[in-house]
Amino acid sequence: MTFNAKKVTVALILTVGFIICRAPLAYSQVGIVGGVNYSFMRNSVLENDEPAYTWNLGANVELSPKTWKKFSIETRIMFIQKGYRQYADKWYTFHFDYLSVQPTINYSPVKQLSVDAGIDISGLINANVIKWADTYNLTDAGVVFGVSAFRHKRISLYSRIIYGLTPMLEYHAIDEMGNFTGEIKDLKNTCIQVGVRINIYHEKLSF
Known about the structure:
It contains 1 helix and 11 strands; from the N terminus they run αβββββββββββ.
C-alpha cells in the first residue's frame, strides 16, 4: 500500500503560504501536536469487534488575522493511526496508518477556550492487514470537530473527533457460483483524539 506523501506535503505548504500572503496583518503560531486516539468502526460486516487505542502525531500552523478578533485558521499535518480490535480465536488489532491534512476554522468564545470545525483528508501509508489488503481504499475523508484550551499558551490541550464519511473497505460481493452480486462499501472510521500542543513559534506577520 503506497501513498504519495510528498505531493500532499507540497500542496499543504503552498496553501498555507497563500493564506499567509493574503493576510495583511496576522499572528502566526507553529506547534507540535500529539496524543492518543479512541478509534472504532461504524460497519455492518464485522463481528466481535471493539475500539482500539492508537496514536496521533504531527505539526500545525495557525493564523489569526488582526481583523478576525475571535477566529483563526489552522492547518494540521498529522500521522494518525486508526483501527479496531476483533476477536476470533484470540484478540487481533488492525492498524491503519494515515498521513492526514486537517484544515479548520477556530472560534474562541472566551479567551482560553476555542471550538474547531473543518475537514480531514487522509492517505493510507501503511497497514498491518495482509489478507484482502487490496480491498481497502487508499484515501479516507471526514469532518473534524474539536475543542482546545489555552490555545495561545506555550502548552495547550485539545480534543477532536474525526467522523469518517467515506468507506475504508470496498470490494465486489461474489456468490457461491462465482457471480458478482453487488459492491460492498463499508467500515467508516470514527476517531476521538485527546492530546497536547506545544507552541514553538509565535510571531506577528506583516506584509
